[in-house]
Design goal:
Blueprint (H helix, E strand, L loop, with lengths): L1 E9 L13 H15 L3 E9 L9 H11 L7 E4 L2 E5 L4 H11 L4
Parallel strand pairs: 1-2
Antiparallel strand pairs: 1-3, 3-4
Amino acid sequence: MTKVSVVVYGADVICASCVNAPTSKDTYEWIQPVLERKYPDIQFEYTYIDIQKDHEQLSDHDVQYIERIEEDELFYPLITMDDEYVADGYIQLKQITNFVDQHYANA
């Protein structure tokens, strides 16, 4: 069975550029049952990283994504799978499913 690490980077405050979008936590909670239902043959492991909390325990890779969010290069919530960028800002299901289909569905 294919294993995929899903990370959602977010904050308690809604992104200023993402008016009317779900919160980061809502996105994190929403993505889990959607992926489980659509891809039953893939084992997803989920992590939520609060970009406003202490970053000492995070990998350099995670810190780089957080820095890019802080520098307004990317928006939150930001989703990665196996450390690859999937989507950021106003997350839509099609972005996620396209990524999974291209990278994992035939594995």
